[in-house]
């Protein structure tokens, strides 16, 4: 059963009772909340994700709870809790979904050390994945969304989850967080885009979530091998071009986008080295996202999928 | 990634015998004449050019005094011991020592 198959009443019952258990990538999240707007927004953005039965152990137990507003004229507030930990200050309830997304990120990079985790979007074509690595504001989400419009499969908008032992990238196709001008731009490049509500005045500006394509969610158990590592950098006056990087430079740049390199130590060094050894690395300064997506698209055409073995490790 | 730091008092001593402490358990990757080396003792990864990588590998293979190291590298690269590129070894030794990649042997 998918989350979208639940009636509105059933959805509220689950969130208000023992919790909605959802499989999101390799994790099971158990979510509880009495905040109606959050339940609605989550239900739309995650409609295609499977509901887990009660027997499945949850990796993360999340609650979004009302918080005191202190002054009657202030807007209603909420708090994000993972188990008994509240990693953030309170936030307005009207922007609970963006905060929940940041909270999910916090859970993953704080606890999921079975993976080497990079700050990166990941898209796949023909079994081979492109890691689009960079900090917030580098344009990776916009580029990722534009590549979905060109037929690439979404593995992730936020994290590359690398299985250090086998070298697979595991999908976690959560909603793509579009910011500011990208909110109006992406539907022109991805006509089938299903955008949720626009959240104004968040800590990262205006945000809207692109609901992940149904196929990406249905294939969230299918990993991919990294074939390209691309470092997009959006700037207003950049000359858009794909610049090959020396592998050692690619290693250093990808390591700088890793959340838990030090925690994993030697196995992180080995796993990252294995990625770089097999992947081609590029810098991608860009102004126009359509041109940037065309350049990344060209990588898959230059190196046809049949030339690369898809053997499981 | 590791970064440059201060030098130790012993680093400049002519007679010091330099070695890679076994506890460092260095792990290596070589990409196109550049090296990435992971130091298990510090948890740091260092990005080295060809000369720096070969100096460190040489000391990992066998401890050496500065002049012995210069001779080894000169033989390996087939260049003169007083060639400009080998003049940098003294500075490299200082930096490797500061980063904890090498240490003087103590009797």
The separation of the N and C termini of chain A measures 31 Å
Number of helices of chain B: 3
**Mass-distribution shape of chain A:** globular
The count of helical stretches of chain A stands at 9
Key phrases:
heterodimer, A: 313 residues, Rossmann fold, 2 domains, 8-stranded mixed sheet, 5-stranded mixed sheet, 9 helices, B: 107 residues, 3-stranded antiparallel sheet, disordered N terminus
Structural account:
The complex is a heterodimer of chains A (313) and B (107). Chain A is α+β, with helices and mostly antiparallel strands. Chain A folds into 2 domains: 3-111, no CATH class; 116-307, Rossmann fold (3-Layer(aba) Sandwich). Chain A is 32% helix and 29% strand. Chain A has helices at 8-16, 36-45, 96-111, 140-148, 182-189, 214-218, 247-256, 261-278, 289-302, and strands at residues 20-24, 27-33, 60-67, 77-82, 91-92, 116-125, 128-133, 153-156, 159-162, 169-170, 176-179, 195-202, 205-210, 225-234, 243-244, 280-286. In chain A, the strands form 3 sheets. In chain A, strands 6, 7, 8, 9, 10, 14, 15 and 16 form an 8-stranded mixed sheet that branches. A 5-stranded mixed sheet of chain A has the order 1-2-3-4-5. Chain A has a 3-stranded antiparallel sheet with strand order 11-13-12, with helices on both faces. In chain A, strand 4 (77-82) and strand 5 (91-92) form a beta hairpin. The model of chain A is unreliable at 306-313 (pLDDT under 50). By secondary structure, chain B is an alpha+beta fold. Chain B has one domain (22-104). Chain B has helices at 50-61, 66-77, 89-99; strands spanning 17-19, 27-31, 34-39, 44-48, 64-65, 103-104. In chain B, a hairpin with a 2-residue loop joins strand 2 and strand 3 (34-39). The longest helix of chain B is centred in the middle third of the chain and has 12 residues, at 50-61. Chain B is globular and about 35 Å long. Chain B starts with 16 loop residues before the first strand and ends with a strand. Mean pLDDT of chain B is 88; it is low at 2-12.
């Amino acid at each position: 059963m998918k989350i979208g198959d639940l009636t509105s009443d059933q959805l509220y019952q689950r969130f208000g009772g023992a919790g909605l258990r959802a499989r999101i990538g390799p994790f099971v999240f158990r979510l509880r909340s009495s905040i109606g707007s959050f339940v609605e927004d989550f239900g739309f953005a995650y409609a295609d994700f499977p509901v887990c039965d009660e027997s499945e152990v949850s990796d993360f137990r999340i609650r979004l709870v009302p918080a005191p507003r202190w002054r009657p004229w202030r807007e209603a507030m909420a708090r994000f809790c993972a188990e008994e930990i509240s990693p953030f200050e309170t936030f307005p309830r009207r922007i609970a979904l963006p905060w929940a997304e940041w909270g999910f990120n916090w859970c993953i990079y704080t606890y999921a050390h079975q993976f080497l985790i990079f700050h990166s979007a990941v898209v796949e074509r023909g079994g081979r994945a492109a890691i689009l690595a960079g900090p917030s504001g580098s344009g990776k989400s916009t580029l990722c969304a534009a590549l979905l419009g060109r037929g690439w499969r979404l593995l992730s908008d936020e994290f590359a989850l690398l299985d250090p032992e086998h070298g697979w990238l595991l999908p976690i196709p959560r909603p793509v967080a579009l910011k500011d001008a990208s909110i109006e731009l992406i539907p022109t490049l991805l006509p089938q885009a299903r955008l949720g509500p626009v959240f104004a005045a968040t800590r990262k500006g205006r945000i809207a979530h692109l609901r992940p394509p149904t196929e990406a969610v249905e294939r969230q158990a299918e990993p991919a091998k990294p074939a390209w590592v691309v470092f997009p950098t959006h700037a207003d006056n950049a000359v858009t071009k794909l610049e090959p990087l020396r592998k050692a430079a690619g290693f250093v740049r990808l390591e700088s986008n890793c959340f838990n390199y030090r925690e994993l130590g030697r196995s992180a060094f080995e796993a990252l080295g294995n990625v770089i050894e097999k992947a081609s690395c590029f810098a991608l300064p860009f102004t126009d996202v359509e041109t940037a997506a065309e350049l990344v698209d060209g990588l898959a055409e230059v190196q046809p999928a049949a030339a690369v073995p898809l053997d499981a490790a | 990634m590791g970064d440059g730091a201060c030098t130790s008092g012993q680093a400049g001593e002519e007679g010091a015998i330099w070695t890679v402490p076994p506890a460092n358990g260095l792990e290596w990757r070589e990409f196109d004449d550049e090296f990435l080396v992971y130091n298990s003792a510090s948890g740091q990864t260092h990005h080295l050019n060809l000369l720096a990588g070969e100096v460190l590998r040489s000391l990992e293979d066998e401890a050496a005094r500065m002049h012995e190291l210069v001779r080894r590298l000169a033989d390996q690269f087939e260049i003169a011991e007083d060639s400009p590129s080998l003049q940098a070894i003294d500075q490299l030794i200082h930096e490797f020592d500061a980063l904890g990649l090498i240490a003087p042997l103590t009797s």
